[in-house]
Prior knowledge:
This protein is of the alpha/beta class. It contains seven helices and eleven strands.
Amino acid sequence: MIRVAAVGDLHFRESYRGGVRSAFRTVSREADLLLIAGDLTGIGRPEEAAVLRRELSIVSIPTVVVLGNHDYHSDCEEDIKSILRDGGIIVLDGDFHKLDIRGTSIGLAGTKGFCGGFGIRQITPFGEIGIKEFLGHVEEETEKLDRALAGLNTDIKLVILHYSPVIDTLAGESPELYPFLGCSMLSIPVDRHGTDLVVHGHAHHGVELGQTDGGVPVRNVAMQVLRRYYIVYDLVGTGG
Ligand SMILES: [Fe+2]
Ligand SMILES: [Fe+2]
């Protein structure tokens, strides 16, 4: 059994100092790895990431994250990635990471994702350049995820996104916001390559449970949805 702890949307600010350290005090005993699905910082300041890194140093299991829209707000996303990586945190942005846990190989593919809407309501890249660029970004994120997943041939495959790849986990959000909470395009590589679990955040007022058209479980792990600092999922590994 592989135990995966997951959360998103910490929105960490320097004034929260101490809170994360205390909340993650026991996670390394309860899980084999920790996933954080973006919006690690409040407004994307490197100072926030630096304090968060220190807080997360209490975690001794592999910690794998993607950034969210808040982490891009101050145009310091590259600094934030470096700060987190310097602390041993694995930051995925269209790439993958492999781990071996008790004889089971785990592959993690992650990227931020983006907006665009869902199913027949997905926005199409037609008309003005602004709309084409908007959709171009989610196409780019989808291709990044596709390439990352193509590199994995592990026993277990996990996907980390910030934006949702399915509409299911948005229930409770205003329908007017759906196109800004994710895009079903992101689910295409998930189903194409086969995935055991997708986690995402961003939809603070959504619900935890969903799945892709291909039946892959999707979990909205935004802290505001979980109403706690993390949840632990058990996945069956080949190593028992
Ligand atoms: Fe958020
Ligand atoms: Fe977000």
